[in-house]
């Protein structure tokens, strides 16, 4: 990072005396020509403002602090605004002998009043009058506002009397807060002082409790709107949880109680010790630096640290790659550590408020209920007591005497469903360093920890509090290494630790039956799991290998073994946890990227899993892991794929350990097909030709009713050349579109192109070909929001079926407009394309897996290259991880064999890579000259 610059003096940036002299000279030179006077004045002010902003920008990029930059920008603005006021009142609307009604004070309020300003922040001004507005004051205000707008400022302004200010501030806490921060810029000093003195005595005095309650309620509403977690991977620097507004809220409350003029005075208050003062200044400075960089980088008041901006801000703040840790992830981890510090500081502040009898107790920081008298204490376990509905400690000495009491504190809070008193939380946070190697290996500590993790009432909430207090990372060092870690991709919505804690919460909810509708299979198998502690430990540790040597899975298994050995688990349980961590992605890979109807898929998966207990554990672990990634990632389609793989694998295990898994699956298909043919012919003799012509695996993929529908569809296709129909499966979050048509080269490509042109996203596709040469293609499709295609407008599904029929007959398709994809954010990622050809993953097909930047039409482009290679596509399995798509195709030669010719395999791989690289090269930047970064492939 660049070395820290010393603060500069404002007069070296904008010389206010010289600026006023220039304005006076311009006014005299153009005397008698008001328009020319105004033009010259604005030109002088624009130059001063531009110079000031450019110096602030240059200093920031060369190591100046965030607070210094915000103050410098505010100081530059002060000089410009006050010089404009002087020019207006001296040269344009001069009152040589002002009457009482012509007195006017110009005051900065809101954030500007605080003396800190971002490059493109709003300018909040108060024009203070003694009483009703006169023609003179109206002219001055109007002239100034138009001039400020012409200078490029977005001005929030009000023109009020002192009485109006006091009346409105009593009624509106937002106005009260803005006046709380008011400072005089220019004009009548007596008027400005009278407002502040009367505001203190007539509004502030005696209303502290109400103000604190209002500000904390306002904060809760704001955070809910911006995102309840402070660990969202695209945080709002100003409004988000753990952002600048949280620190401003602390400042407002402290200023209300102990009037100070600026942040320096705030942090000198007795409310904070030296460590907390350092944390506040560090957080305030860092967040202001990020905010100023955001404004300068975008040229507008951008407050959200989106993916496309993160690499650029990391570069501007001096972060570089270090080992396997890219600069952008190092920067974002620093951001989230700061957000975590802000949360801890808020708790400390709440404790101080309660000690001063300003904020009353239950329940939680955000709920202030005015009351009187000291909260009653109820004795609990030795060293602990309940105080005002929250769990507190008798004093920090209980942690110093026995550090395991820190773990007992959180277990007791969970058992009794109590919030932690801020004093208890602060003491635990300050004493966390007492947890050393001896405590980590203590069996008593391990028991308390496992009680919280695997047997607690609400493990997500309790572990989150432990994480905030640094207790979790101290007790499990492997966990400490992933705290605030961010993966630079669009797949994950949260940091690694936040994602993991949410996944633990999902498992707890599954165990309690809260997800019986969404996850019926997981809910059913959860009571059958023998080792609940191994499941929860594996979930807690499953991502501890991210960024580790040897890859995420191997490094995670090593970390899991290390952690479990310290906890004193026996060897069998240690290996179970390590196995689950190492293989936590296997089930989702096989379910979403492989054909479950292929005997080799199930056989290979069963060979990895080995036992029914592992299968049950892996199912619940996988479901929780995917669901906790972020909103909308889990859907019914993925659930169906998981259930199919689980059912097929369970059938293999029922055949006994010594059985051939692939042979067992083939026998299962043969028996199911035989029984289905008998039933279907008996039900509908017209379906005889169809069911006799289809392969065995087809009958395990569909119900009898669906197969009879396919038979009718094939008869329609024989008459019309092609026939299609669609069905909405809301439980799968997808619609099924089935088309029957004569098989031909490139049929799948034409059909997929028709689906894409209609604006649908293909999430899965199966292709069956009868012995008579008729193809049955089944597509599962979603709309742009991830819902079943046509769910909101069934006519869309009918139109899609018509387009597929036309494509099936070989008619040229009509390219329809498609919504613009989200390339603004995705363009920040550099994605390395990969192509893999595998002849071992299937008994009868070659599996082609291609991965690259997701975009509309990618599936069609890949399928076209496969068709051009003379191959037939039997199935397509589509998955996406944010900006990255992974498409897997089961393909065969025209004669039904695998692709084995090395030259043709190399050529196909080369063509697919060219298609993927073309997509990557064409990816636009969302904003000119912004830094890009390599997308993380970690899941």
Provide a compact summary of the structure.
With 939 residues, this protein is an alpha+beta fold.
Structure in words:
- It is a single chain.
- This protein has 939 residues and is of the alpha+beta class.
- Strands 9-10-12-11-16-17-15-14 form an eight-stranded antiparallel beta sheet.
- A hairpin with a 2-residue loop joins β6 (384-387) and β7 (390-393).
- α2 (16-29) runs antiparallel to α3, α20 packs across α26 and α24 (496-511) crosses α31 (612-627).
- The longest helix is centred in the middle third of the chain and has 29 residues, at 327-355.
- The two termini are 30 Å apart.
Keywords:
939 residues; alpha+beta; 40 helices
Strand-residue proportion:
5-15%
Distance between the termini: 30 Å
Number of helices: 40
Specify the biggest β-sheet.
Answer: 8 strands, antiparallel
Using DSSP, what is the number of strands?
A: 18
Instruction: Give average pLDDT, whole number.
Output: 87
Low-confidence stretches: 360-373, 816-822
Radius of gyration: 34 Å
Shape: globular
Helical content stands at 40-55%
User: What strand line-up does the widest sheet have?
Assistant: 9-10-12-11-16-17-15-14
Supply the helix-strand structural class.
Answer: alpha+beta
Name the assembly state: single chain
């Amino acid at each position: 990072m660049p070395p820290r610059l010393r603060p500069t003096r404002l007069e070296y940036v904008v010389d206010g005396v010289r600026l006023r002299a220039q304005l006076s000279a311009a006014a005299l030179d153009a005397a008698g020509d008001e328009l020319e006077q105004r033009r010259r004045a604005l030109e002088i002010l624009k130059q001063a403002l531009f110079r000031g902003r450019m110096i602030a920008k240059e200093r920031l990029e060369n190591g100046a602090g965030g607070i210094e930059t915000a103050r410098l920008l505010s100081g530059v603005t002060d000089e410009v605004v006050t010089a404009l006021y002087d020019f207006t009142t001296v040269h344009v609307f001069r009152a040589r002998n002002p009457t009482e009604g012509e007195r006017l004070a110009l005051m900065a309020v809101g954030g500007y009043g605080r003396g800190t300003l971002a490059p493109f922040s709003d300018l909040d001004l108060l024009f203070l009058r003694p009483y009703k507005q006169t023609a003179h004051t109206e002219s001055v205000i109007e002239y100034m506002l138009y001039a400020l707008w012409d200078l490029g400022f977005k001005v929030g302004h009000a023109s009020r009397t002192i009485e109006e200010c006091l009346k409105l501030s009593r009624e509106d806490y937002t106005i009260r807060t803005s006046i709380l921060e008011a400072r005089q810029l220019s004009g009548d000093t007596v008027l400005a002082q009278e407002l502040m003195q009367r505001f203190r005595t007539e509004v502030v005095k005696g209303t502290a409790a109400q103000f604190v309650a209002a500000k904390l309620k306002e904060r809760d509403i704001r955070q809910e709107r911006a995102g309840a977690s402070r660990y969202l991977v695209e945080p709002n620097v100003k409004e988000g949880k753990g952002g600048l507004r949280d620190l401003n809220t602390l400042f407002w409350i402290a200023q209300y109680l102990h009037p100070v003029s600026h942040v320096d005075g705030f942090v000198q208050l007795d409310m904070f010790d030296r460590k907390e003062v350092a944390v506040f200044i560090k957080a305030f400075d860092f967040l202001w630096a990020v905010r100023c960089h955001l404004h300068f980088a975008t040229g507008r008041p951008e407050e959200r640290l989106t993916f496309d901006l993160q690499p650029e801000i990391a570069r501007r703040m001096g972060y570089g790659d270090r080992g396997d840790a890219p600069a952008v992830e190092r920067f974002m981890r620093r951001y989230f550590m700061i957000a975590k510090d802000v949360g801890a500081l808020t708790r400390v502040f709440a404790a101080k408020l309660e000690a001063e009898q300003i904020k009353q107790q239950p329940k939680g920081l955000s709920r202030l209920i005015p009351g009187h008298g000291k909260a009653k204490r109820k004795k609990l376990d030795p060293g602990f007591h309940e105080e005002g509905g929250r769990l507190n400690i008798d004093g920090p000495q209980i942690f110093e005497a026995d550090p395991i009491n820190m773990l007992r504190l959180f277990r007791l809070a969970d058992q009794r469903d109590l919030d932690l008193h801020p004093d208890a939380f602060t003491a635990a946070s300050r004493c966390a360093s007492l947890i050393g190697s001896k405590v980590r290996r203590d069996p008593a500590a391990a028991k308390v920890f496992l009680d919280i993790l695997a047997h607690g009432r609400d493990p997500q909430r309790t572990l989150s509090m432990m994480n905030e207090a640094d207790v979790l990372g101290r007790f499990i060092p492997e966990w400490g290494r992933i705290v605030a870690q961010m993966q630079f991709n669009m797949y994950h919505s949260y940091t690694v630790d936040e994602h993991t804690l949410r996944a633990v919460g999902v498992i707890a909810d599954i165990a309690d039956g809260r997800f019986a509708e969404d996850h019926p299979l997981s809910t059913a198998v959860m009571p059958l799991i023998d080792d609940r502690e191994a499941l929860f430990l594996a979930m807690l540790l499953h991502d501890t290998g991210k960024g580790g040597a040897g890859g995420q899975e191997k490094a995670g298994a090593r970390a899991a073994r290390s952690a479990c050995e310290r906890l004193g688990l026996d060897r069998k349980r240690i290996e179970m946890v390590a196995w689950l961590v190492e293989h936590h992605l296997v089930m989702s890979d096989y379910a979403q990227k492989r054909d479950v109807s292929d005997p080799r898929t199930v056989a290979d998966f069963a060979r990895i899993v080995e036992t029914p207990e592992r299968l049950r554990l892996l199912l619940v672990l996988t479901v929780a892991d995917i669901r906790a990634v972020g909103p909308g990632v889990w859907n019914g389609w993925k659930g169906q794929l998981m259930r199919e793989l689980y059912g097929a694998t369970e059938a293999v295990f029922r055949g006994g350990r010594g059985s051939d898994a692939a042979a067992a699956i083939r026998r299962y298909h043969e028996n199911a097909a035989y029984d289905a043919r008998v039933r279907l012919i008996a039900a509908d003799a017209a379906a005889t030709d169809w069911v006799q012509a289809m392969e065995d695996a087809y009958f395990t993929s569909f119900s009898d009713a669906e197969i009879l529908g396919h038979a009718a569809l094939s008869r329609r296709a024989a008459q019309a050349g092609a026939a299609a129909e669609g069905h909405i499966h809301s439980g799968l979050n997808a619609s099924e579109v089935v088309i029957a048509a004569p098989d031909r080269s490139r049929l799948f490509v034409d059909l997929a192109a028709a689906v894409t042109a209609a604006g649908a996203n293909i999430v899965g596709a199966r292709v069956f070909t009868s012995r008579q040469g008729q193809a049955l293609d089944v597509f599962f499709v979603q709309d742009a929001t991830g819902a079943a295609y046509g769910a909101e407008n069934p006519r869309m599904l009918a139109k899609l079926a018509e387009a597929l029929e036309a494509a099936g007959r070989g008619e040229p398709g009509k390219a329809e407009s498609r919504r613009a994809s989200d390339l603004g954010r995705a363009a920040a990622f550099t994605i390395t394309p990969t192509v893999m050809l595998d002849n071992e993953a299937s008994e009868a097909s070659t599996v082609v897996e291609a991965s690259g930047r997701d975009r509309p039409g990618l599936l069609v482009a890949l399928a076209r290259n496969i068709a051009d290679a003379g191959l037939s596509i039997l199935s397509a399995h589509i998955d996406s991880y944010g900006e990255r798509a992974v498409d897997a195709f089961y393909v065969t030669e025209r004669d039904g064999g695998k692709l084995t010719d090395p030259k043709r395999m190399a050529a196909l791989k080369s063509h697919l890579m060219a298609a993927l690289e073309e997509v990557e090269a064409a990816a636009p930047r969302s904003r000119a000259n912004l830094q890009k970064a390599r997308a993380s492939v970690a899941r």
